[in-house]
Design goal:
The structure is a single chain. The N terminus is likely disordered. The protein is an alpha/beta fold. 47% of the residues are buried. It is globular, with a radius of gyration of 18 Å. Helices cover 37% and strands 16% of the residues. The strands form 2 sheets. Strands 2-1-3-4-8-9 form a 6-stranded parallel beta sheet, sandwiched between helices. Strands 5-6-7 form a 3-stranded antiparallel beta sheet.
């Protein structure tokens, strides 16, 4: 059985056991009123990494959209290319054209483009301007929290991590041991399948400075959640603590006893957490 078939089988089995809505699920025809959850996986990952979490949220009545980073397996593209694409290809159509409320879920590297792409799109700003839709709140999962001018390489101490292999000839950074780095607590065969879908990351994306960030805008006060993964092998807990502390704003920090990828190791638990926070964001307006 090939790797794509394994992932399809894992997803089919997962959906089959979902006989009741997850904890905290909206009731009734909730797709009409519930916000859209926008899921952005981190570096090296393709959008299908979020399929199981997306399926759990869909089972609970939420619409989801996933954004695949441009910098995965494409050299020479920068973090600001990702930010522009996220905004123009997904956030702008959902909010400006369709008037949808959204919750933005950012995993790992996605904190870089996500922090930039949100400019002027918060629900609070749009309400004040008499416009529909907007970003209700932000969920950063073991994610970078950059300031303007920061690079990813700077935020990890100025040198590549032991599990990263930068290649100036290909222009890509590869992961030496994806399974143990990202999926140490993910069951087989899913861990192996996920590892087979890890690709190179643009070298330039680790060295390009961030444009102005917006998670610190007052519109997101009491609407910022940081999901801290305690057993993370890719982004150690002390680094996550530093990102939050150095951001200069208050976060609702929630801790998970998982690796870097709870969307695969604990998708039901993670979906419940996303739902609970989404409902809190909605109640704040």
């Amino acid at each position: 059985m090939n790797s794509r078939s394994l992932l399809s089988l894992a997803l089919t089995i997962f959906l089959a056991v979902l006989s009741v809505p997850a904890f905290g699920a909206p009731l009734g025809n909730s797709n009409m009123s519930s916000p859209t959850i926008v899921l952005v996986p981190g570096a090296f990952h393709v959008d299908s990494a979020m399929d199981i979490l997306g399926a759990q949220l869909a089972q609970a009545g939420y619409n989801t959209r996933t954004f695949g980073l441009l910098t995965v397996n494409r050299p020479r593209l920068t973090v600001n290319d990702d930010a522009a694409a996220l905004r123009l290809a997904l956030l702008h159509p959902l909010i400006e054209e369709q008037g949808k409320d959204i919750v933005l879920y950012l995993h790992s590297y996605a904190g870089f483009p996500g922090s930039v792409a949100t400019a002027g799109l918060s629900k609070a700003e749009r309400l004040a301007a008499g416009k529909p839709g907007g970003i209700l709140g932000l969920i950063y999962q073991s994610a970078f929290v950059p300031k303007q001018g920061d690079t990813l390489l700077k935020m990890i101490g100025g040198s590549y991590a032991p599990w990263q292999d930068p290649n100036t000839q290909t222009g890509l950074i590869t992961v030496i041991d994806p399974k143990n780095t990202f999926y140490a607590d993910v069951p087989e065969p899913l861990a192996s399948e996920a590892s087979n879908q890890i690709y190179g990351q643009s070298l330039v994306s680790f060295n390009s400075p961030s444009s102005k960030t917006h998670y610190g805008d007052s519109f997101y006060n009491n609407r910022r959640v940081y999901l801290h993964t305690n057993l993370d092998q890719a982004l150690p807990p002390f680094a996550q603590d530093a990102f939050v502390a150095n951001s200069g704003v208050a976060w609702n920090v929630q801790k998970l006893d998982t690796s870097h990828s709870p969307f695969l190791s604990e998708p039901a638990q993670l979906a419940a957490i996303v739902q609970t926070n989404t409902q809190a964001f909605m109640a704040s307006y």
